Amino acid sequence: MLGPLAEIQAKVERSLKNRAIVLRKMTEVLYSCEDRGLRFEILMEHVQGHLHTIKFKRLEGSWWAYKKLTVAITDDIQSSEVMVR
Question: Among 9, 68, 81, 84, which residue's Cβ finds the most Cβ atoms within 10 Å?
Answer without folding.
Answer: 9
